[in-house]
Specification:
The protein contains seven helices and ten strands. The protein is of the alpha+beta class. It is globular, with a radius of gyration of 22 Å. It starts with a helix and ends with a helix.
Length: about 270
Amino acid sequence: MKRTAWVLIVALVLCAGTLLAAITLPSPSRPALVAGGDLAELAFQPHPGARLPLAATTTDESGRPVTLGTYFGKSPVILVLDYLRCTSLCGVTLRNLVAGALAKLPLEPGRDYELVAISIDPRDTAADAAAARTKYAALLDREGAERGMHFLTATAPAVRAVADAVGFPYRYDSLADAYIHPAGFIIAAPDGVISRYVEGVAVAPRDLVGALADAEQDKSPGLLTRIVLLCHVQGVPLGRFTVPVLTAFTAADLAAGFALIALFTVIRRRRHG
């Protein structure tokens, strides 16, 4: 029995090593998406208490120039920085926010909150923003949904000013024709002060209520978690954090495997005396 257990342990270690090498080493058929730099720098850099540049000029869904401050003053603002051409996690984040959380809460858009999404891609147009607004308003499936949902576009300098205030670094990668950026959103007070960060692609309704109601409390995850939650195209290396991130997950998997082996060993000994 001891021999069987050791065989299983060795097999697990070999499998984990193979998986780690396969994920860590760059694929020969695909160039690295980011030449130089460390993706740790592209994780959220929370600035709770900072004030948003409400005078920044954006363009709404009808093509009309508006300042960011247009959507502040009455209720908390859920601010999402994304881009409408994204094929990775942007759509997942918005879909989970709208259909997975807001649609399940008895909150009225435009009264209890404003949802403001600003595209970081200057190629997105007002027509793209209008289509996105219609799409997510349908997902919310609530009368008057579009009153509290705003999809904006802006020039690169205007977007960068908002992103810098939020602590939302992003980078365009020409090889993938995609932007690499953190996944998540922020909640700002009606006066434009950043009060809460919600990181990741999903939020539970009760957590969103807590974030809106208790916006002054910051519960941001640590740096390692924020690195894992980067919105990126599959295959992007994590720079110097690749090994610790993947090792952490591998170690967790191995620990679970060892626990199962130990459990099976105890059960077998009990059955066979």
